[in-house]
Structure formats: structure tokens, C-alpha cells
Amino acid sequence: MSTRQGVVTDKVTKETLPGVQAIVKGTTRGGVTDVDGVFKIEANNGDYLVFSMLGYESEEILIGNETSFNIELTPTTYDLGEVVVTALGIERKTRTLSYSTQQIEGSIGEIKDNSSNILSSLSGKISGAVISTAATGPGAAARVVLRGNRSISGNNTALIVIDGVPYDNTSYGQATGTTYNYGGSDGAVNINPDDVASINVLKGPSAAALYGSRAANGAIIITTKQGKEGGLKIDLNSGMSVDQPHLLINFQDTYGRGNGGVAAEGVGESWGAAAQTYPTNVKDFFETAYSFNNTVSLYGGTDMMQGFASYTNNSVEGMIPGNKLERNTMNLRINTQFDSRLTTDAKITYVNQRVKNRPRLGDAGTPIEAYIMPRDMSEQELKDYETINPNNGQPVRKYWTTSSIYDNPYWSTNRTSVNEERNRVTLLGSAKYQLLDWLSILGRVSYDRYDDKIDGSFYDGTVSLGDVKAGGKYYETNSQYWERNFDFLLSGENTIAEHISLNYNLGTSFLKRKYATVTDMANGLSIPNKFSLTAATTPAFQDVGGYTRALNSVYGNLQVGFKSYLFIDVTGRNDWSSTLPSPHSYFYPSVGLSAIISDMVNMPSWVSFGKIRASYTQVGNDPDPYLLKQRFLFALGAGQGFISRNQIKSIQDLKPEKTKSYEIGLDWRFLNGRLGLDATLYKSNTINQLLYVGLPMASGFNRRYINAGNIENRGIEIQLNATPVETEHFTWNTGVNFSRNINKVIELAPNTTQVNITDNTKYATVIVKEGSSYGDLYGWAWKKDAATGKYVVDDRGLPVVESNQKLGNFNPDAMLGWSNRLGYKNFSISFLIDARIGGEMVSGTDAYLAAYGVAGYTEKFREGGLVLDAVKADGSANTTAITSQQLWTTVSQNGRDAWGDFFTYDMTNVRLRELSVGYDFQLKETAIVESASLSITGRNLLFFYRGKSIMNINGIGKRDNPTDPDASLGAGNYQGVELGLPPLSRSIGLNIKLTF
Questions:
Q1: Which residues have C-beta within 8 Å of that of residue 553, sequence separation ≥ 6?
Q2: Residues 697-732 pLDDT 10s
Q3: pLDDT at 534 over 80
Q4: What pLDDT does residue 83 have?
Q5: Of 938, 917, 951, 952, nearest to 988 (Cα)?
Q6: What does DSSP say about strands 91-93 and 101-104: parallel, antiparallel, or unpaired?
Q7: CB under 8 Å to 604, separation ≥6 — which residues?
Q8: Is the CB of residue 99 less than 8 Å from the CB of residue 86?
């Protein structure tokens, strides 16, 4: 055996290729080429060397007496051997998969979303995904739903997996209604995009079956960067961006404060006489927000050890005064192979994240306080939000009316504050041993822990919260979450006959999770505005809740291949969950088929590759903890306090929620891979839903849990990729994602045909109704005459409404994304246009704008003369003229209890989501800087189309949606109703990357 070495180059460009795998066929001996494309390997005469790399055809050579080689690899634009990371970190060739996956191409998170959440940056890039981001500024949580909503009371968001290990993405404190809410971060906001190497999306239960319960809604597989063999390199990635309010409300700028067209001081509404107004008073409240993102990465190594280390600082401002995120991320990863059969991987990531002055959304939130201020209020008057008490030197709230509900928005941003800090540590260690040439075993341990502290301080005199007692209010909430996972995986690959191959995995895992949270409250302070628990006049302690839960599992999959063009997959998993009754066990299988048609039969020359696939899967989903036994509550009181029974009756025969899924699809490439089509049809049914049903008072309970229900999702996903132009200096790559999901509630429970997603009834109630679709919106609607079909008004000429009427559904009918990348020499331009087609939302913001007479459309008919195109109760035509104030104050019900039909909007929108213009500098080989690139980026630059109000009122017409159709109050299941969201931000940035 002697040393063989050489250089591997691209056959077309003649450039050297680093990262090419070189291995002695039939053994584990080998390595990868270094940064100069050089390889060294020990081999005998007569051995075969195999060279392979993603995007190139493999090359196999016979070793003779030669010791030096020059190897050329042929690039392929259609990648028959493309490898992606799937469940449990297992790498699989895409040609063998029986289910749909989607690899995210290009730089991950190059154009960052203002929320600083990596999930938000995926909008428009994933076929079949509906992504909603809470409008709570930097650090906001995001909701990613793949192939429709499945669970009524549970989680519908996809699982996140990092380097083969599930990553907790719980979003706490999300809105369940329109009352004021601060929201909170999720787990994804702690992920540093600059550490991410690739993202692969497993969309359906088939793809995620081996991950078990947590992946019933699909999975987002993230692989992070690691070291490379070669000398030490340093990457610097720095960027800054500017965010400004983009989607601004159309305000009226004619009338000032007052009522009935008469000016009046001390009135909050703008229904007064014509006055000097201040068109930019709302815009000027929101600030220009600056963001800075800086990352330094070091990587390199030898053939036996490689390392990667990085530090990232993110400083992101929100548009609401005082709102800011500071995040520091440190990452270290070491990979070793000191023995030819043993490889190890160790990683530690630490995140410190602080969010200052979170916005308060909802009916007493900071944005709504700014929106409703009188149009004749100057910036100087608005900023005069307090006086100083001469007796104690403490600030005293000032407001332009005697309101006991609202504060000046500057009081809210300067004299109330909710802050959040998180410290998170994630540890991963794994060792893989090659027992035989065809059999390996992997052992892996992971630990994820984060500690959250939230503090809230509210000055004496604050009224918008409704409960601040004398001296002020202060609270601290401390939460702790950790999970520990051990898993073992035996993997093998054999050829049992000339044309039959086996690929198999058998594993087990042991998962334990624990969460605890407590709140200390000081509502009332003995020293005014001294925000300390020691100053509490009425101290209170609340054990908000927590849990400990465990999940043990065994799982396995077997793939049988025939002639490398026909593959059958079988998987099975059994879980034992602590949240289920004894024996705690549930099993779910899957089976799939993949056939490479282009290898089975002769195809025309213009067909490069053709594949069809099909699969069937069952996936289980265990419930939340502590539903099996009756729960009791403790409250402070006389003596030793009081114990009371929870009014929800427990369920002893609790069953796991189950999803059954069918999927068929195809993957075809044409014209030497320059045109590709991937299409999927799917259908899934989720049964054993956990529902609440009412109980008679005599039972001693209000409600009880039951297992029932069947929710169906079926749809189509299409991915079309093409390279229309490819010359020596110019290339154009384009891709289109299209998806449509149809949801239907097949059944709920005996004697139950409707359940609420939440208990909220303002504006619209979000429900699940048998025979309809998940996410229907029901509320007050303008009554129509049965005979004529016209709207009905009363004797005053004002609308008559009916309760419990369907207003719409918050889910889109279809999603569309069109991405492009054009390269000319060293220049590149990329852009993304995406569309949300269909779906409705009820805007509480618009209801407030109408109630306070500040919306642009309220300017019409101030003097009267509006005759609604309607009939009266007796069927006669309406002839009664009304004023704008009469109409909008009636239907808005003072803003808080509006009739939803009048404020329902089409959520359809088409926007230029992302734009990037970049340049790669040509540098001399002797330069200190090895490579450098500069890019100008933009996000949410413009709308091509934005849906309007559903209702078309004669003389007024259809109205513009005052908010971003893609934004939401929170990242939970409560969607489709908004109130007090800040304006959408337009972001323009500059980014530079240097490699030393």
C-alpha cells in the first residue's frame, strides 16, 4: 500500500474543486480534497478510487503503479445523485425518496426580516407553506403551517430540527384574542442565519414519520456549518439596514376633534369641524429603525480534525420608540476522525437575547393609541404627555381627553415597559463507528436549555391596562425550559443480489422535557414608581404552570432497491408517551414507492430524468401533560388559602391524535436539466382531535375533554425550475412555487357541530364547523332581504345586522412564489415576488379608525347626504339620508365591539418580497483578502396588488386594507382577526462579505 495523490478539477471550467470525496471502493479509507483540490490517499495496486461531489458525475479509476493523478469531474445541471438531509440527520439521495422535499437554495437569510426570525425569511420560498409572523417587532414569533391546519386545540407549526436533533420552537404568550397582548419570542428567533449551511423542508407526515409526534406537521431540517480541511480561514459578514413605515394608513386630513361637525376641546374623536390638521402626525410617531448584523467565522482543519467557530451580534431596532433587540450568538463545532472507523461531532451554541420595550398590540396597544389621536393634534402637543408633580417629583399622565381607557402613545412607550431576556445553551455530541464496511452505529446526545426573564413596569397613573394600582405596577416572570435527548441509530447498506440493494436504519431515543414558570407581582408600590418587588403594597406570587414529560421511542426504516431505479420504503415507529394512559404506547407506520422511469425505459433525448413516487403514512401526536387526572387550583386567601377544582373535567381514556396521509408525485427534468418539474398531490386526515364540549351545570363542571373529530386537508404543490439563458457571461435561473390546500372538517363529535378555536367573540369568532373549513370567521353581518337580496336598514337609514354569520376564512386559497437570479460576469441580481391568493381577515384597526373619524373614507358625507342602497323592513326602498358619523359610529360600536362584516378584507396580495444586487470583486492572488462581495438588499419594497374590503358601500366604494395582510396578532392558532398592528416596514440594506 502506498500514498496516491493528485488534483481534482472541473472538466468545464478547469478550476480546482475543494470538498470532493475520494474513497477506496469497498472500504472506508479516504478523505476530501483540500482548498486547492488536492487529495492524498493510501491505496494498493488494483484498487478502485471513487471521486464524488454534489453537482458532478462520479468518477471511478483503476489504480496501477501510478502515484500521481489529475482527475476531471463532469458537472451535471440535473443532479441524479443529489443528497439531502432527511429525518434523524440521515443523508438520502433524492432519486430514492418516496415523498416530497424542498431544498432552500441560495444564501440563507441574506435578506433578513425585521422580526429577526429565520422562519419569516422563508416566505414565498416553500411550496405548500403559509407563514405568518406576529407583528410584535424584533424577536417576534413566526407560524409555519405546511399543507394546512390539522389540529384544533394543538400546535399546527412545523417541527424544527438542527443537525439531526429536534429544536424546541415553543412560542409563549401568543394572542388568543384582541385584548392587549405583548406576545413573546419563539425558539426559531434564536437561530443564527449566518451559521446555517442548508435548509431542507419535509412537508408531509411521510417525510417526517421517523421524527414521531413532534413532526406530525412536517419538519424544517436545518444543517449548520462545520469546519473544512485546509488552512485557517476567516469570514467577515457585516450588514446594516434601514426600516421605515411602508404600508401607511390613509387618514383624513380635513376635520379635527369634536362631534357632529362641531369643534370641541377635550374630545378624542375627529368628528368636528374643518381644522388645521397634521397629515404626518401618526407617521412621525413611528421611528426609522436601524439594524446592524455582524458575524465573524473561523474554520479550517486537518484530515483528522476540523473546527468551526463563529460570533454574531445582531442589533435590531423596531419602529415603535424604544423597541430594540440585542442578540449575541457564539458557536463552536469540532469534527474529528482520528480513527478510520470513528468519527465524532461536538457542538455548543450560546445565545443571549434581549428585547426591550415590546410593543403592546390589541385594543389598548401602543399603535392603536397613535392611530386614533385627533387629526388636528400637532407633534408638539402629542409629545406633551406628562407633567411633574411638585410634591414628589413624579410624572403625572396627561391626555387630551378624560379617557380612562387610553394613554398617550408617548406615555405608553416611555412610562410603561415590558422587557424580555433569554439565555440559551444548546449542546450536541455524537460518535459514529463503522462496525463493518456496510454497517455503522451512531450514538448521539443533545441538551437544550433556555432561561427567560420578563419584567414589566407601569408608572402610577397608567390607565390603558385597566388595573394599575396606586404607586404603579411591576412584575417579574421567570421561566425555565430544558430537554435532553439520547438516541442510537444502527445503519446498514447491503447488496444481497446482483440487482437488489438494502438500506436500513434501526434506532431508539429517550426524550425528557421540563418547563416551569413563576410570576412575582407588585401591583401597587409603596414608593411611587420604584419598580422593585420589595416596594409592593400587595405582593402576589403565582405559579403560572409547568410540566415534566417523557417520550421513549423505537423506530426503523428499510429501503429495498432494484436495479437502482425502483425503491420501496417501509418505516415504523412506536412511542411511549408519559402524557397518555397506561401502557402509554402508540404505533404508526409508513410505506412508499419511488420509480425512476427514465432508467426503466428509453426516453427521448430531451428528457434528462423522470421519476414518480407514492407513499402512505400514519403519524401520531401525543397530547399536553396533565389531562388524565382531575386538576385542582390553589388561591391565596384567609388562613392557608383555598383549593378549588378545575372546571374542565379530565379524560381518563385519552387517545393520541393521529394523521393518515396519502401522497403521489413526480419529478422530471428536461433539456439536460435546464427545465425541472416537481409536482405533488396529497390528502391527509387527522382524527382523535382533543376537543372541549360543554357539560350541564349539575355535573359540577363547565366542560370536558373528548377525543373526536376528523379534519381533512388535500391539495397540490408544484415546483417549476428553469435556466432559460446560460452563456459564458450571463445566466438566468428562475423558479416558481405554487400550492393550493383545501381544508374540510369532516366531523367533530356527537351532538357537537361547532367548536371555537378561541373564546374571543369580538369582531369575529374563529371557529371550526362541521362540513366547513378550519378557520372560518363568524360574527355580525349586515342583514339582507330574502326577497330582493338587498341590504336592510332601519327607519333611521342605518344598517340592521344579524349575529353568528359567516364572514370568511383566514386561510388562503393558494400561494405563489417566483424567484429569480440573474448573473452577468461579477454582477448578480436576485428577486422574489410572492402572492397570497384569497382568504379573509377582520380588521379591528379599521373599526377604530372608523369609530374615531380618522380614516380617509370617513371624510365623505360629513354633512350628510349618504343614502344606503338598501331596503327597509317592509321591503320598500331606503330614502333616508345619513351622515358619515352616523354610519361609522353605528357599525364600529365604538371600535371595541364592531360589526365584523363592515371591516372584513380580502387578504390577497402580490408583493416584491426581496431584491438583492451584488458584486463579487476580482482580487489578486497575492491579496490578503481572498474574496470579497458587496450587495444592496431590499425587503417588502412594494405591492403590485393588495386586496380591499369585501363590502362595497355605495358612494364610498371598496376600502384599502389598513394593515399588512400577512401580519398577525400572534403566532398561535388565533388568526384572521387583527387589532392595533404597526405598519409594515420597508427595509433597505447594505451587506459586505470578506474571506481572509
A1: 212, 508, 509, 510, 511, 573, 574, 575, 576
A2: 777 787 787 888 899 999 999 999 999 998 888 999
A3: yes
A4: 66
A5: 938
A6: unpaired
A7: none
A8: no
Taking the C-alpha atoms of residue 501 and residue 280, their distance in angstroms, rounded to an integer, is 70
Residue 44's CB: how many other CB atoms inside 10 A?
A: 10
* DSSP states of 14-37: --B-TT-EEEETTSS-EEE--TTS
Structure confidence at residue 243 as a pLDDT band (50, 70, 90): very high
Residues in the chain: 996
Q: How far apart are CA 977 and CA 984, in angstroms?
A: 17
Helix H or strand E encompassing 889: helix 884-892
The per-residue pLDDT for range 70-80, each reduced to its tens digit, is 888 876 544 44
Sign of dihedral through CA atoms 7, 10, 16, 18? Answer: negative
Q: Which band of pLDDT confidence, cut at 50, 70 and 90, is reported for residue 296?
A: very high
- Rounded Cα–Cα distance for residues 990 and 996 (Å): 20
How far apart, in Å, are the Cα atoms of 115 and each of 165, 241, 554, 696, 887? 25, 13, 38, 45, 38
Give the whole-angstrom CA distance, residue 147 versus residue 203.
7
C-alpha cell at 489: 441509530
Q: Report which of 115, 220, 85 is spatially closest to residue 158, judged by C-alpha positions.
A: 220
Contacts of residue 785, defined as CB under 8 A and 6 or more positions apart, other chains included, come to 791, 792, 871, 875
> Could you identify the residue written with the cell 391524535?
657
> CA gyration radius for the chain?
31
pLDDT in tens, 182-221: 999 999 999 999 999 889 898 877 766 677 777 888 889 9
**Under 8 Å between Cβ of 536 and 525:** yes
By the 8 A CB rule, do 207 and 100 touch?
yes
As a whole number of angstroms, the distance between CA 727 and CA 748 comes to 58
